[in-house]
Amino acid sequence: MQRVEVCAGKDCKRSGGGPRLEKLIQQVVEEEGLSNTTIERCYCQGECGYGPNILVDDKLINNVRGRDAVLQALGLAQEA
Ligand code: FES
Questions:
Q1: Pocket of ligand 1 (CB under 6 A)
Q2: Is the dihedral of CA 51, 23, 66, 2 positive or negative?
Q3: What is the mean pLDDT of the chain?
Q4: What is the predicted pLDDT for the residue at 77?
Q5: For a pocket test of ligand 1, which of 5, 6, 11 has the largest count of ligand atoms closer than 8 A to its C-beta?
């Protein structure tokens, strides 16, 4: 079970996080068939300047922009 929490704070939303990022993560999760991943929202994590931020199993990950960043955050990035 993997738990993803997307910061729904104002600054993260403004930098492309929040609901938009949630949608992208949802898409990736479906495409990758990650059936035991849950996606929730969380409050501001106090690293607003480094957003958009998400938590993956309580680990804070900054600057999650775009699909590649999501794959990496979920531990699915391809080795170069
Ligand atoms: S708004 Fe996301 S960490 Fe503060």
A1: 7, 9-12, 44-48, 51, 53
A2: positive
A3: 96
A4: 83
A5: 11
Atom of ligand 1 nearest to the CA of 47: 3
13 Cα nearest atom in ligand 1: 1
pLDDT in tens, 32-68: 999 999 999 999 999 999 999 999 999 999 999 999 9
User: What fold does the segment set 2-73 form as a domain?
Assistant: Glutaredoxin (3.40.30)
Domain ranges of the chain: 2-73
> Is residue 2 within 8 Å of residue 74, measured between CB atoms?
yes
Encoding tokens for residue 10? 């104002």
pLDDT of 19-42, one tens digit each? Answer: 999 999 999 999 999 999 999 999
End-to-end CA, the chain: 27
